[in-house]
Amino acid sequence: MSASPNLSPGHTAGQGFFRFLARIHDAITTGLFGISMLATAYLTLVLSGEVIARYWMKDPSSWAPDTAAVSFALIIFLAAPMLARKNGHATMNLIVQALPVRASVWLQRFTMLLACVACLLSAWFGWIELSRLYSRGVTMITVTPIPKWWVMTTVVYGLVSAGLYYLRHLICLSCSQSQPGPRSGDS
User: What are the C-alpha distances in Å from 121 to residues 53, 99, 115, 118, 168?
Assistant: First the structure.
């Protein structure tokens, strides 16, 4: 049985399938990151309008603070997977850079494994809470009734997606024959 003609030598159909899944994951992340940018613009405009309404017109809205809380969740948990994807999170890599390359790679692998487990475990507990909120019909205690499960859905998605990116980084670090990216001070 021969490999698919669309695959380069040494690649199996399974690898092609996982690359396909990774592209879908990346596309979803990119799209939802766009929504987080829209949520940022919304938050900026609504809160600016609320300041004008509250302090200059003396007529604050009842819905702006409520929707701002939802917007914060969208901003954070729809953008977090993109940060995980691009390794855009803040790092303190003094120890990683000081270690020999082999030990540095193992420390990076451990860090990615720890981040993956933390995100996926948190997502599991988030899913349990999301299910409870949905089944009970819990809404936020605000003037505007907003179901809490709407917000919790973004939290669970963000944690699952970030966890999958950390898993992907771990797999790439483990499978790669090349050295890790350039370390500062290296030429």
Answer: 43, 29, 10, 5, 16
Distance CA 42, CA 38 (A): 6
Rg, Å, the chain Cα set: 22
Question: Which structure tokens are listed for 13?
Answer: 């159909």
Alpha carbon separation from 5 to 22, 88, 95, 164 (Å, rounded): 21, 36, 45, 29
pTM over 0.85: no
- Give the CA angle between residues 52, 140, 116 to the nearest 5°: 105
Summarize pLDDT for 59-90 with one digit per residue, the tens: 888 788 788 888 999 999 999 999 999 988 77
Q: How many secondary structure helices (H) and strands (E) does the chain include?
A: 5, 0
pLDDT digits (tens, 9 = 90+) for 119-135: 999 999 999 999 999 99
The span from the CA of 70 to the CA of 151, in Å, is 6
Q: DSSP class of residue 10?
A: T
Query: Domain residue spans in the chain?
Result: 16-175
Lowest mean pLDDT: which of 46-55, 90-99, 173-182? 173-182
Question: On the CB side of 161, how many CA atoms lie within 13 Å of its CA?
Answer: 28
The CA distance from 95 to 144, in Å, is 49
